[in-house]
Amino acid sequence: VGDRCYEEGMFEAAKLLYTSVSNFARLASTLVHLGEYQAAVDSSRKANSTRTWKEVCFACVDGREFRLAQLCGLHIVVHADELEELIRYYQDRGYFEEVISLLEAALGLEQAHMGMFTELAILYSKFKPQKMPEHLQLFWSRVNIPKVLRAAEQAHLWAELEFLYDKYEEYDNAVLTMISHPTDAWREGQFKDVIAKVANVELYYKALQFYLDYKPLLINDLLLVLAPRLDHTRTVDFFAKDAMQHAAESRDAELAEKLLQWFLEEGKRECFAASLFTCYDLLPPDVVLELAWRHNLLDLAMPYFIQVMREYLSKVDRLDASESLRKQEEHVVEPTPLLFDFDGHE
């Protein structure tokens, strides 16, 4: 009879009947239809059924009775397979603050599980990014890191992304994140700790370039960390290349000449040859010729001198052509003007 009254919308009658037979689950359903949310929550507690808790919770959300909805929700979130539907119900209706408050309240429950910490982190990334760092500091070991990584990346939370990569022991990605987003993610101590753990040695040289570009005053500190792991020959060549580029961009002929001499003193023959082209227009040919002759490097310098000779011959050819044109203009005979006498005859 109670069910028939319920189905026909006779909720007051159904309430009396369900109360008389202590059918608390159906009573809770009836009470929400009557708008008696507090009584519905009390009946749900007696029914102690996840299905009933969900029904009353959702009804309370629809009725904007968020305090009561949270009381119900605390009995739902502890079931991992029910969590996603509950969060979606709040989100679809735009109640982001309320679902965040619900999960925050649930973290202290004895039955708190990984899904709760993970979903709260994802909600923070979307709606309260300022709370994300503290949450991860406290609970990084209790979240599903790959899932939260994706959320942090989508939200462009680079510092949090780097933190999670580090905790997940993806050190290569942690370093790349700091290099790609230094304003948000780079921290000196953290960078030096992580760079020492990377698997891809190419990241050492990428890190060196990053420091040269953005943190040149700290390059020595980085080298102290990387020194045992670097190929010293490649490192010297790396800095030689950077020095050549710096000299070329400085437009300082004296600096370029000193760099050339330093390469010779250090026996860096290939660097000597490379700098002839990198700093080509800053180096006097007579200085290059003398250095190449004194160090028996004329063969390495020959392409440079061929280019110099080509340029000088081109200049001479242009001067010859200009001089020839000038002489031709001088030999052009101007027409003699006609002279008339006073009688008007030529």
From TrEMBL:
Gene3D superfamilies the UniProt entry points to: Tetratricopeptide repeat domain
SMART domains: CLH (SM00299)
GO cellular component assignments: clathrin complex; clathrin-coated endocytic vesicle; extracellular exosome
GO-annotated biological processes: intracellular protein transport; receptor-mediated endocytosis
A Pfam family assignment: Clathrin
SUPFAM superfamilies: ARM repeat (SSF48371)
CHCR repeats: 1-69, 74-220
GO MF term (any one): clathrin light chain binding
The organism's place on the tree of life at top rank: Eukaryota
Coiled-coil segments: none
Name assigned to this protein: Clathrin heavy chain like 1
Species name: Rhinolophus ferrumequinum
